[in-house]
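note to self — DONT lose this again. spent like an hour looking for the file last time. sequence + predicted structure for the chain T wanted, 168 res
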Amino acid sequence: MSIHFILGGARSGKSAYAEQLAKTQSKPVVYIATAQANDAEMQSRIAHHQTQRPQAWRTLEVAEDLGGALNSIDAEHCGIIDCLTLWMMTCFAQHPQVNHQAIEGFVESLAQFKGDLLLVSNEISMGVVPMGALSRDYVDSLGRLHQQVAARADQVTLMVAGLPMTVK
């Protein structure tokens, strides 16, 4: 059992790195996609990610119940969650505040997970404090989630310009 948390900025190579690691596994892969295709640009991004994945991988598309999706992966599989940032955005869009129930459900599922898991997320808290209460709440909530995930992870990697930097 291994949990590997992969963080980085936009276009830092996070997803490609997670997919590269998954391809080295001898286990079948379950890809949990959290992006919602709410506009043409996001549809294009999703389509690009889909073409990068091997067709043998099973894909689960998730809106809010990330914990339930994680619970559906057994120890015989390698899971990829891509990405926590977009999942949190979906949670905020549906409840313009922190959805503590969804977050707690995911963290509980992560604590009970017995397989190999690669988690991808954007590190967005290295810049200025955002303007507006909702934006600050989102950054704070994602930062707290990152801390919980990193504490449970066996490995944490920060991606910078396509290069993996070991954090833990």
